[in-house]
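Handoff note, outgoing to incoming analyst
You'll be picking up this chain. Sequence as last confirmed:
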Amino acid sequence: MTNSVTIRREKLQQVLDRLVAEVDVPGIVAEVRDADGTWFGSAGVADIESRRPRQEGEHLHVGSAGKAFTAATVLQLEAEGRLSIEDTVEKWLPGALDVNGYDGNKITIRQLLSNTSGLFITGLAPELSERYATRATFAEHRFDSWTVDELLALTVSRPPIHEPGTAFAYSNGGFYLTGMIIEKVTGNTYAEEVARTIAEPLGLTHTYVRPADETGYPEPHPRAYSSLFLKDGVNPADVTAENWESMFEEPGLPLLDTTEYNSSWAWSAGNVISTTSEMIKVCDAFASGSLLPEAQHRAMWSLVSTEGAHWMPHASYGLGVFELDPAVTGGHTLRGLGGSMQGSHFAVVGTPDGEQTIALHTNIEFKTWQVLFRTLEAQFGLPAVPGV
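Most recent structure output, in case you need it:
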């Protein structure tokens, strides 16, 4: 290994160490695959009680990175001539959106997958947040299992926030509807189609859609921890843009172990289990176009602006995937997928040629964009990303 490669790896390890020390992350791992081979680094712990370290090959919840699996599955179905992403929701799910001012004849599958459908931001639904927003409600509901019908009801529980195709707003509901369309078109379960169109072609043996009744992980895996809770007794409906800071728990409280947890509410919006190694394969295939035919690959990476949407900074959105703004990457194209949920924050980012990719995971939910951008700066030699 050349001296420059050694320096880059050492710099990345220093970033991991610093994030654990300064950002209150229990444990973090990063796996790199590039022209210089494969490198794995970690900092912190997998279990705060036993203090055992994090390790290679851990099974992880990849959160909303699962949205890219939904998009790729639909695009493969399009390549097979079984649907078009320009089809309306009404064509495949008649009457599903006949409520609260929605019109299934005006919303297309493409808009569902690009978060431009105008659907209410499902993650803000009180029916969801009331179950998980405080430590007490999380303890009461952590093993609740959600049905597809319940997720559909959640999706349309509030009116649209804009006309279809006019703006970006991050909504799990669009991916719930897409999962329902996948099952309607194929007659198979969403999980079976993800396996057929992605896991099997890429030779993934540790990547799967989590069953609705599964509440743990295969070994090995880290413990998952969360600190993202409102104060007990707070009604999520009372939280506003002005008072939200005062509504959350005071810093310094013990982390809550959320390892055993039913995440069926995420379903086709992000309920995939995988490893850093296999997610590098996934990212490489999606970014480079080695999995999908050319037309569908172009569709996956036809980008929309997320400016003003209070989403990820310096990024545009494709179909379940993101691309970073060349202004912060030194002109290079970097593509990725990622997500966060209770006890897990995951991202994988790589070049379109698949020659350089990094996957990272913390066993706590999103804390700060520094976790992503500091590691990208170290791996890809980026200038310091402004505002992060």
